[in-house]
Design a protein that fits this description.
disordered C terminus; alpha+beta; 4-stranded antiparallel beta sheet; two-stranded antiparallel sheet
C-alpha cells in the first residue's frame, strides 16, 4: 500500500463522562468533543509510508455510568476520482474531512473490530442523516446543536441571516414521510463537506487565494447589509425572506418551465442566465 491513501473513521455519540482516546495512526486526525446533545466524529486519512499494517485503537471509557452509540465505523484503502491526481494543496488537510471523505474500497484491505464489555446494552440512539445533492450519500448531521458540524457545513451563520429561510438549506424533509419537516436555525449546505471541497470550491476557484475568497465573502455580505439598510433588501432578497423560496424558482414553475410569450420549452440553464442578466 506504499504511497496509497488509507484512512479510518467513525461517528459516535456519548453521554457526559465518557472519554474518547485514539492510539495509532498519524498525529493529524479529527476528533470532535461535542456535548451529549450531539454526535461526534473521529478519523484520519494519509498516504501510507510502506506496506506494513497500521493498527488504530479508539477507546471510549466511562468515568461513571454512561452510554455510547456508534455509526458506520470504517477503515481501509481510500479511492475516489477527485482524490486521484488531486493538487497537493488540496490534500494537505484531508484528515479534517474524515470520516465523510472516506470512500473505502471493497477489497478487504481494512478490518474493523468492535469490542464491548459484557452486559453492555444494545439500545439505539437517534441519528439524523442528510442527503448530499452531489454524491447522493446520506451522512450524519446534528440538529439539536447545529453548530456542532459533522458531514455538512452550516449555511446561514451570520446573526442577521438567521433563522435560515432558504427552503432547500433551512429545512430537512423526511424521505419516508414527506409531511415531516425539520426547520433549522443555521441550515446546512446542499453538498457534503467532501463534495463542497472538490465539486464546488476546487472546480470553481483553482486560481483564487484564501485571502481573495475572504475578501469576496466580506464584499458580498457588505452589499447585502447596505441594500437591507437602504431599500429593505433587493426584490429577490425580500421575496426570499417573506416567502421562504427563491423568486426565480417560483416564476419558473408558474409558467410551466416554458416561455410565457410563445410557450416554447426552455432549458434550465437558459432561464437562469436570463434571470441573472435581467437582475444585474
Amino acid at each position: 500500500m506504499k504511497g496509497q491513501l488509507i484512512g479510518y473513521g467513525i461517528w459516535f455519540w456519548r453521554t457526559d463522562g465518557v472519554v474518547c482516546s485514539i492510539v495509532g495512526g498519524p498525529d493529524k486526525r479529527t476528533l470532535t468533543e461535542y456535548g451529549s446533545a450531539s454526535w461526534n466524529k473521529a478519523g484520519s486519512m494519509w498516504l501510507a509510508n510502506d506496506a506494513s499494517p497500521v493498527e488504530v485503537i479508539l477507546t471510549l471509557t466511562a468515568t461513571s455510568k454512561g452510554s455510547v452509540a456508534l455509526y458506520a465505523p470504517l477503515c481501509g484503502r481510500v479511492r475516489h476520482k477527485h482524490l486521484d491526481g488531486a493538487r497537493p494543496e488540496l490534500m494537505r488537510n484531508m484528515y479534517q474531512f474524515s470520516p465523510e471523505a472516506l470512500f473505502i474500497e471493497d477489497d478487504g484491505a481494512g478490518v474493523v473490530e468492535v469490542e464491548a464489555v459484557e452486559g453492555a446494552s444494545s439500545a439505539d440512539h437517534p441519528l439524523i442523516l442528510k442527503s448530499c445533492n452531489r454524491c447522493g450519500r446520506f451522512l450524519p448531521v446534528n440538529v439539536a446543536v447545529e453548530r456542532d458540524q459533522l458531514s455538512f457545513s452550516n449555511h446561514c451563520v451570520a446573526e442577521h441571516r438567521r433563522p435560515c429561510k432558504h427552503a432547500t438549506f433551512g429545512r430537512l424533509r423526511n424521505v419516508e414521510d414527506s409531511a415531516e419537516v425539520l426547520q433549522l436555525d443555521y441550515g446546512y449546505q446542499l453538498e457534503c463537506r467532501f463534495c463542497k471541497k472538490f465539486e464546488v470550491n476546487a472546480a470553481h476557484n483553482p486560481q483564487r487565494s484564501s485571502a481573495q475568497m475572504k475578501e469576496d465573502g466580506a464584499r458580498r455580505r457588505a452589499f447585502e447589509l447596505l441594500l437591507a439598510e437602504l431599500y429593505g433588501g433587493t426584490p429577490q432578497l425580500r421575496y426570499r425572506h417573506e416567502k421562504g423560496t427563491e423568486l426565480a424558482d417560483d416564476v419558473w414553475k408558474r409558467f410551466g418551465c416554458a416561455c410565457f410569450n410563445c410557450g416554447a420549452e426552455l432549458a434550465r440553464e437558459i432561464w437562469t442566465a436570463g434571470i441573472s442578466g435581467n437582475s444585474a
